Amino acid sequence: MAAIAGRNTVRHPLFARAFHRVSGVMEREVGRHRDALLAGLSGEVVEVGAGNGMNFGHYPTSVLRVVAVEPDPYLRARAEDAAHRADVPVTVLDALADELPLADASVDAAVCSLVLCSVPDQRRALAELRRVVRPGGELRVFEHVRSATARKARVQAAVDRSGVWARLAGGCHCARDTLAAIADAGFRPAGMRHVDVGPAWLPANPYVLGRAVAAP
Questions:
Q1: Is 103 exposed, middle or buried (0-12, 13-18, 19+ CB in 10 A)?
Q2: CB 3.0 to 4.6 Å from 174: which of 21, 133, 142, 203, for a disulfide?
């Protein structure tokens, strides 16, 4: 599907190009998590922060359509290329996670994959996702989160305060309490597990993988 242009451009040119170049290598470790993230999905799905479209090849054919949101122009162009190769219909939009061009309760599921760390306002983005997901629908999540270990959490907070990691990693924050924010937005966790990706000492560890259900 062709990309639909908008006025929501987010530019991280160095990070976007670096991410695209290493994403194939990342797939060797992350691909199995993408399979688990998307397994069993069906109907209409919105994916925010779709990046270069690495998830597209993992969607099951029970999905009727994916609306993929990516504001970075370089990554969005790569996502459009990936959409043409996908086994399910994918529409790529230039939009932000906190301003989705979708009607209320219009999708059966939402997918967040390595994006809730970098959205400017995480709670607002999750509120938008709750708005567009029908009651009883799903939020699928593969995200790194604040560590439950106090010492590691302090390190993550210090990394965020320095601002260096965010500048190098496209706005990424390591110490966000993403699980609490998901629950506060009206999604009930229904099968979340922790996984490690890469060295455990990285500030962007641990990860959570699983699903939450949109409350009525």
A1: exposed
A2: 203
User: How many residues in the chain?
Assistant: 216
Are the C-beta atoms of 140 and 37 separated by less than 8 Å?
A: yes
pLDDT of residue 19: 63
Peptide bond into 60 cis (omega under 30): no
**Antiparallel, parallel or unpaired: β 90-93 and 133-144:** unpaired
**pLDDT value for 156:** 96
Q: Residues 185-213: what's their mean pLDDT? A: 93
Residue 7: pLDDT band by 50, 70, 90 thresholds? Answer: very low
Q: How far apart are CA 48 and CA 71, in angstroms?
A: 9
- The H or E element spanning position 206 is none
Cβ 46 vs Cβ 120: under 8 Å? no
H or E element, residue 102: none
Nearest residue to 146 via CA among 132, 157, 131 = 157
Convert the pLDDT of each residue in 149-159 to its tens digit: 999 999 999 99
Q: Which residues pair with 7 in a beta bridge?
A: none
CA distance 139 to 51: 18
